[in-house]
Automatic annotation (TrEMBL):
Keywords: Membrane, Transmembrane, Transmembrane helix. It comes from Pedobacter paludis. The chain crosses the membrane at residues 20-39, 51-67, 79-100, 141-162, 188-208. It comes from the Bacteria. This is Uncharacterized protein. InterPro entries: Peptidase_S1_PA.
Amino acid sequence: MITLLDVPNPAGLAENPLDALIVAVILLFILSTITEKFTELLRMYPYQSKMLGLLLCITLYILIFRTRSLQVDFPPKAFFGLLLCNLLLTVILVVNIFFIPKHKAGTSAPENGFTRLFSVLNNVAKGKVTTEDEKIKEVTFLSYMVGLVVTFLFNASLFSFFDTSNAAKLQPISPFASNQDFALDPKFFNFTFISLIGYLLTAFFLSFGARFFHDLLDNLLQVKNLKRKLNEKADYDFDKIEDFDNYLKAQERPLFEAFLRKNLEGPGIFFESKFPEMEVIVHRSDDSVKVQDNLFYQSLVGKRRTVKVSVKSSPEIQTLSIPLFASSNIANQSPFNNLHGTLAYQVFSQADNKSFFLTCYHVVWNGHDWDNFNPAQNSLIVHPIGGVNIGTAVKAIKNRLIDAALIEPSPDVDFQGLISGIGQVNNSRVLDPENDLNIGVKMNGSSSGKKLGRIAEFNKSAQIRYPDGQLRYLDNLILIKPIEGAFFSKGGDSGALILDSFDVAIAMLVAGDEADISLAIPFSTLRDQLNIKI
């Protein structure tokens, strides 16, 4: 008997039931694969397989009686049990070889009770026209019989998979006696009633097929991977399943966003993700850009999931500056293509408490170097109504995180500190992606007036069309969707301060598509990059 499976468990396996179960499933997967291959072979050559089986049965009879004649110490129960099993197998093969074809050849010769009882393999041949139920039953029976033989040859009792004390059994056993020519070794057939039950159970599970154990093993490894990730978080403590689910979602979301950025970022593309629904809406300004219908995402626990992709044709995302008009709020004294935007608010330097006006760099830009702002070049900023001088741009930054400018106020400006329709700003705060998702927000843009929206997503990246016609990236943006009306922002609103329901500053508007997409820079990013406060 091949004792491949009679090995001691690794150290600590008994203390880790999950590892023990994974080992058992791996062994069953290997054995089920062997069983399937042998079953396929028997189905491809059914007649030859039956004849070969009958020949093996006859050979086994010879070996049984030779062993008996040599007076080998063969336990009577094992001897007669082996003889009975071989006799049953012989009857099945003889009936299926010599009797079944005769009755199946014509429709006028019905089966009798004897042939019906033992006709268990006549429909297993590949390509044989028969009812599906008959074929399934007989193929399953054949698979079980093959699995039982494989189980016995490998000494694969189901109970031994979880037995940590079988190290002493690690020795090969031959079916032939070492001191007798062509005599059976009693040890090979010496098994207990419990081990017999174990063989029958193993064969039963092997008939499920390799695919079953492959999927089961995949699920167990995902559980093990999840357990490892939880163990890496030393202080996790969940009082209820909802806390556990929230923890998993918090860990999964940034990975999902990074996966989408890797697969969907490109010119004319902006996407909205729906998590944990594993869906994504792609806004495409150029219909010639190809977008996959589905993406395949490997989750935190190793599960392969399909991400459904919906595509919408949308206007291109661009800076929200428009030609100058009477109600404009803020612009360069020599505006580029008559562009203007919105003054965000008065802010103060954290170093010396000096005051500035905050807006977007592109609002006051006019031929400046995007990477190296020179305040001596076209830096006078005006309120477009009457061209009133409100200050001078002294600092401006455009990088992957911010698009912002600081304006040193003119001595003649009397800043009241109120936002029309909203009122006084009550400081600023850092947004929490877990708790602030879908909160209501508001702003007052110089073009749109007071608008209400909600935070739809965090940590967005976008390619934005700037006034000079070039596409430039911004990362870590907030996606805001409208609550009332068809849009939250439009051209001329760039630089508008965005507040939560408590009138606390949380972001500054920077771009949008003048439809249902508005993008904003978190105020915490502006604070850190410009060293400012409200």
